[in-house]
Design brief:
Methylamine Dehydrogenase, Chain H; five-stranded antiparallel β-sheet; single chain; about 10% helix; globular
């Protein structure tokens, strides 16, 4: 969970259909998802029994990459990557070169992005025998995939000179070999960005203008998105004398402009806490951001804001979310734009005081955000009353997917996926095949939909030995 003033990175069917015909109909309505499989090769790496698929990115149907972490036989956390080619997942491998960097024996891939099949980037952190935020972070790293082969991980160039310990929280590729990485470093807790141009990573820089905003010294970049090479946006939070605030910064023609507080967010943020958790760009200069703020009633609310033609408009409370959020605790955890002005957002809200959390989605059509709705069908699954959307992805306008977790009647978390087709959300379904794998808790942590369709999702489950394992599944139609 995320609480005010504390930022923590988490590593981590009610209706039974009785006939094959009914099951097939449900599959078609949900987007014809295949069955979840344990990530190939990850079990052999995961000797310590704790693994997760943290991020998935697809450049085209059946051509994706994923990353996350596993625990080796010595109980040390390591980062892995794996690629899918023509619909077949390869075997997970330790990130090449990361073992030599990971002296603190604590590494993880937090984000993966693919510009084209076999051309991706990944980023995260590794231990360097230092402690950071009591979570063991050391240094931020990046690694690139070229023509289907992963190169060696490197410390983000220039990050040590800025302040050393930190993490890459997000990467995004606008074109093959042209990506951006963003995160934070420990010297005063500042946010940074780094850019890859033509296959070469440049030096990390403090987000321009962020130091002037960050008077009390705690700033992080949580998300970066690139619509094309040299045209990106980033978002996160900073702290001043009045509390925490959400910011955005944009890169235009290869140059980062100064960070600004999200316009209009100060008027919403009466409780001294706001943050941008996610940004997504549908085209250069046309992006969306989402996150949470604290209103005058001491309730957390979800917001969205749009950049149009290079100018950020005012943040607004997600339409309709207040009517759902009776318990006063809501946030946007993920946004994704299929094209300029056509986006989706997802997250969670609190139904009422007995702590009943539910997942929602909201869509933007032609530049206008529509009312948030509970993910169709999720209420029937969420008998334990604790659900949320962790990830949304839009391949094109009106064609998106969402994934997350819910609490079943046996007090176990399960993973779900839901699909929007031609502007209409279908019912959430339990991840096909996951029940056969999962003997405890499970959830979807990441979904990715390429423009041509054919999404993929990944997450973790608990096996019969009470070990956490990573899984993936693909949309088949």
């Amino acid at each position: 969970m995320r609480r005010r003033g504390v930022v923590v990175i988490v590593a981590g069917a009610a209706v039974l259909l009785g006939t094959g015909c009914a099951q097939a109909a449900a599959a078609r309505a949900a987007g014809s998802w295949g069955r979840a499989i344990t990530m190939p090769g990850l079990g052999a790496l995961n000797k310590g029994g704790n693994a997760d698929v943290s991020s998935v990115s697809c450049a085209s149907p059946g051509n994706c990459s994923a990353g996350g972490y596993y625990t080796d036989g010595g109980g040390h956390q390591q980062g892995f990557v794996v690629s899918e080619q023509n619909g077949r997942w390869g075997r997970a491998i330790e990130v090449p070169g990361l073992g030599a960097l990971n002296k603190g024996r604590n590494a993880q891939v937090l984000s993966v992005s693919c510009a084209s099949p076999g051309n991706c980037a990944a980023g995260g952190y590794y231990g360097n025998r230092s402690r950071f935020l009591n979570a063991g972070y050391g240094r931020g790293f990046v690694v690139s995939e070229r023509n289907g082969g992963w190169g060696k991980a490197i410390e983000v160039p220039g990050l040590a000179a800025l302040g050393g310990s930190g993490a890459v929280t997000s990467v995004s590729c606008g074109a093959a070999g042209n990506c951006a990485a963003a995160g934070f470093y420990a010297s005063g807790l500042q946010g940074f960005v780094a850019v890859e141009r033509n296959g070469v990573w440049g030096k990390a820089i403090e987000v321009p203008g962020l130091a002037a905003l960050n008077k009390y010294g705690q700033a992080q970049v949580w998300s970066v998105s690139c619509a094309s090479a040299g045209s990106c946006a980033a978002g996160g939070s900073y702290e001043d004398s009045s509390g925490f605030h959400g910011f955005v910064a944009v890169e235009r023609h290869g140059r980062w402009d100064k960070a600004i507080e999200v316009p209009g967010l100060a008027a919403l943020n009466k409780g001294e806490y706001a943050v941008v958790w996610s940004v997504s760009c549908g085209s250069a200069g046309s992006c969306a951001a989402g996150g949470s703020y604290w209103d005058r009633h001491d309730h957390y609310q979800g917001f969205v804001a749009d950049e149009r033609n290079g100018v950020w408009g005012k943040a607004i409370e997600v339409p309709g979310l207040a009517a759902l959020n009776k318990g006063g605790n809501a946030e946007v955890t993920s946004v994704s734009c299929g094209s300029a002005g056509n986006c989706a957002a997802g997250g969670s809200y609190w139904l009422d005081r007995p702590r009943r959390y539910q997942g929602f989605v909201a869509v933007e059509r032609h530049g206008r955000w529509r009312k948030a709705i509970t993910v169709p069908g999720l209420g029937a699954l969420n008998t334990g009353a604790n659900a949320g959307v962790t990830s949304v992805s839009c391949g094109s306008a009106g064609n998106c997917a969402a994934g997350g977790s819910y609490w079943d009647r046996h007090d176990h978390y399960q993973g779900f996926v839901a699909v929007e087709r031609h502007g209409r959300w279908g019912k959430a379904i339990k991840v096909p095949g996951l029940a056969a794998l999962n003997k405890g808790d499970a959830g979807v942590g990441s979904v990715s939909c390429p423009p041509a369709g054919g999404c993929a999702a990944g997450g973790s489950y608990t096996d019969r030995r009470h070990h956490a394992q990573g899984f993936v599944l693909n949309q088949t139609g």
